[in-house]
């Protein structure tokens, strides 16, 4: 069957993009050098909608978002795919037998045990927002069941036998859980020992936007002011050795940005060694202020105290950042930004600003923009990154990356 490449309704895309800011996973693959500015020519094209998430299972890249058709880079027919598909990392060939029929957008992916992948989002019955699929044929793994109720899944992180699930739901299976849960990676059974609960959703129900984990720490951000009743405005760290909120607190995201952004944190990612993490935000132009609207900020994971401050901040000067990937050699940031190094700008290029349309890289130590500048068509923005040994995968809603046609999926190769 041939599928036309008509775009999904714009209103649908904008709405879902607003409520699913990004997806973050566990600490990424270390890369000794910054990736090339020239994308590979093998990645397939997503012909409509938006890409929100990646997962790597063996040599297979699983892609999730809100779309209906894909096409291989070498050409050929349009292939129908309902919000999720998979391709070979090295050849770009789309897996013909992985074609699940999900009736709603996918926001989160995580590699599962064996040849499987967890898929989270806003799709309905029979999976209700969370399913584990076989990568070989797209069939659900029958032994896994963790349906969510009262909302959607926006972030997934797997650590060994545990799968952390974040979103804006109120229940997982038969267990009440507000926005955050830990389930068994094999069965989906809710872990009764992990009950950390986000509270005070900043003008709405609480929700988790992004998560990242390494060893003994889970970092979460989202629309909340407390975790287990402890003050944690929009950002918190959980000690996985105890299952309790860590003694780590920052007031950096307590000040309000523009009124239409009551919660403005978006993506986050941990460094490969877990020592630090970076948070990116939206929020609106805020020239001449200490507020972290429209910025990327580094924090030290094992800092202690009630007033942890960012190690550095890089501001765009008024444009949103949605996604971040930390490779060790670089902090890659993406959104619909025009500039980096722009603390004096307010929808303008202030003194010292550097042009970085849609994508850029920051020095992890200094917080200043690196020279890497492939550019991309800005659109809504980059919503997904994934660092792999062979490069950096990029997912968005636009079709130009590195001055070439790469529809919604692209990869910059390792150098």
Automatic annotation (TrEMBL):
Keywords: Signal. It comes from Microbispora rosea. It comes from the Bacteria. This is PQQ-like domain-containing protein. Residues 1-17 form the signal peptide.
